[in-house]
Write a structure and sequence with these properties.
Elements (H helix, E strand, L loop, with lengths): L1 E6 L4 E10 L2 E11 L6 H19 L3 E5 L7 H20 L3 E5 L1 H9 L6 H11 L9 H24 L1
Parallel strand pairs: 1-4, 4-5
Antiparallel strand pairs: 1-2, 2-3
């Protein structure tokens, strides 16, 4: 199964593709979709949407795992991230790809085994689980790989539960 993990944003959308076969995970690709700050929001959303469709056509994931929206103190940023997340979900829906959503707590629990783990712990465990020589950059891409690993674990649990 190929899982595309997405860390949504409007300036940077992190992505990470993982192939999982019988509990073995292998990194296929990672990176980021970026949009320039000087562009109007509607242009940025269009760019994210277009780049996301290209990414989906290239990676051909069986599933997309995306981080649930977490509102911090800045409501404006939260709304902008929600808009970006919406065009990402639309691109996936148009291609008929199953979407799975995970909270940051669920991702930390799946990757580190502790829901209150620090960001550097999640990144290091992601690197180790995928047997990578160095930490993926940008951080948003590393986060997206962790989200993909979270789904790989959840999907594996579901499959084992059906046997």
């Amino acid at each position: 199964m190929v899982i595309l993990g997405i860390d949504p944003g409007y300036a940077i959308v992190g992505y990470g593709a993982v192939e999982t076969v019988r509990g073995n995970n292998r990194m296929l690709a990672y990176g980021a979709i970026t949009t320039p700050a000087h562009k109007p929001m509607e242009r940025r959303l269009h760019e994210i949407y277009t780049d996301m469709k290209t990414l989906l056509d290239t990676v051909k994931p069986d599933a997309v795992a995306i981080e649930e929206l977490f509102f911090n103190t800045n409501i404006t940023t939260g709304i902008q991230v929600a808009q970006a997340r919406g065009v990402i979900l639309l691109a996936c829906a148009e291609r008929g790809i199953s979407i799975y959503e995970y909270t940051p707590l669920q991702v930390k629990q799946a990757v580190v085994g502790y829901g209150r783990a620090e960001k550097h712990q999640v990144m290091e465990m992601t690197r180790m689980m995928l047997k990578l020589e160095k930490m993926p950059k940008p951080d948003d891409a590393a986060d997206a790989l962790a989200i993909a690993l979270c789904h790989a674990q959840a999907a594996g649990s579901l499959l084992h539960g059906l046997k």
